[in-house]
Amino acid sequence: MQNEELEEKVTMLEELIQGFVVRMNVVETEMPEFLKFFLQQYKETLDRIASRIETANKRYDDAKIQQQIDEVKKLVATVPKVIGVKNSHHFGAWSKSLIIGVVVCFVVTSLSFGTALYLNHENDRLNNDAYNFWLIKALYPEVSKTIEKKLTEDPKSLNQQAEKAMEKQEAVVAAQAQAEQADKELKAARDKLEKVKSDK
Questions:
Q1: For the chain, what is the radius of gyration of the CA atoms?
Q2: 0.90 cut: is pTM over it?
Q3: Which domain of life is it from (predicted)?
Q4: What are φ and ψ of residue 119, in 5° steps?
Q5: In the chain, where the domains are located
């Protein structure tokens, strides 16, 4: 089976090679005749082209062309290799106004945003205070009536009393915080002492 396939392939290769040999013979025999025919047919045209090339060469003087080339080379040699350029930029009246306007808008926007945040924070605090007073008014109506009465009679003294009471409360809160901190430190010191004693 394999021998038959090999023989078939070998015969095909022999046929291809014989075909190439025939074609090469045709190319070898007919190509020189074709070239000879081509040269005979276009001889006059080629002669005309050659004569025109010669006349064109005679029109231009080689020495003159070489002289012009030398002059161009000298001119190129005198040109500096690096040309320094001074570059300056200035803002015109329109661009200055635009930049100032943008900066002013940015500052105004920043101030407005900061003010809005501050007012929002204050509004929240006032709402909390109002809600707390509402709770007192709802749960302890007598106390709220007393506060409202004192506010109408002598608001300055009530404000002073309130400020003193607030300062006292803040002082008490601060003292409690210090006491709690001292207790924590004392407890930590005792724990450390117990640990040191137990390590011995």
A1: 56
A2: no
A3: Bacteria
A4: -65, -35
A5: 154-199
